[in-house]
Design brief:
This protein has about 240 residues and is mostly helical. Helices cover about 70% and strands about 0% of the residues. The chain contains 8 helices and no strands.
Length: about 240
């Protein structure tokens, strides 16, 4: 039995982000698929539940400095952090990676045709994420902050055009799933970001940047799926919407 008192993998990571390294080691998705129980996630990956549990317990009981406890942050502060840290990272790094991938395709594409697929998938990711973040920044996040303000001032709020916060959240989750799947394809095409033996320095830097981008995306999606979204739904339930 799963003797960790958390309903989902995402809840475990939300409580102690150090456990993310354990799940990454076993290929267990803690962000897009963080809603699964640990038992279900281990069965899906064909890994031993007790072995994973032992490592998770070891990490959680370690006396090393724990990661930042984002779960304890005020919701509006966490949203600001996501925008200024992860949204800005995506915007900045996307342009650099698009430039490097285009260069690699021109120079190495004939010998390594997989680069053309990698570039295409990342171009879609850059476009989709830009649109996704705008929807969060212009629609979902402002409404969450409006709820926070209304609750603090003991006021009600008008029902939004999307009826309930659960609706845009469901769309954001679906889009997170799409990006998680797409980056899984990129990781496979790059052989887990391992450059070929004839790779130049730009080639190596680009693959390292893609790996960093995926890791940042995992943390970005984790913060939203496993902390921001559940808190927003709970917040909406605390006062009347007229």
């Amino acid at each position: 039995m799963n003797d960790i008192a958390y309903p989902t993998v995402g809840a475990i990571v939300a409580d102690d982000f150090r456990t993310a390294a354990v799940f990454s080691k076993y290929g267990i998705d803690f962000c897009c698929k963080g809603h699964r129980s640990l038992d279900e996630a281990c069965a899906k990956k064909g890994v031993d539940l007790q072995e994973v549990l032992a490592e998770v317990h070891s990490v959680m009981n370690a006396h090393t400095q724990p990661e930042i406890d984002f779960k304890s942050w005020p919701l509006d502060l966490l949203i600001d952090y996501i925008e200024k840290t992860h949204h800005r990272y995506v915007t900045d790094k996307s342009q650099t990676l698009l430039f490097y991938l285009d260069k690699l395709c021109k120079v190495h594409g004939q010998r390594h045709p997989e680069l053309l697929e990698i570039a295409l998938h990342f171009k879609i990711t850059a476009t989709e994420l830009a649109q996704h973040m705008k929807k969060e920044e212009l629609i979902l996040f402002p409404f969450i902050k409006k709820m926070i303000s209304a609750l603090n001032e003991k006021q009600t709020i008008e029902q939004p055009h999307f009826l309930t916060v659960k609706n845009p959240i469901a769309q954001m989750r679906d889009e997170h799933d799409n990006e998680g799947t797409r980056f899984g394809i990129i990781a496979q095409l790059t052989n887990q970001y391992t450059p070929p033996t004839d790779a130049c320095e730009t080639y190596r830097v680009t693959f390292a940047m893609l790996s960093d981008f995926e890791q940042d995306l995992h943390k970005h999606i984790h913060l939203e799926n496993n902390i921001v979204f559940p808190k927003a739904v709970e917040l909406e339930s605390r006062f009347a919407i007229v």
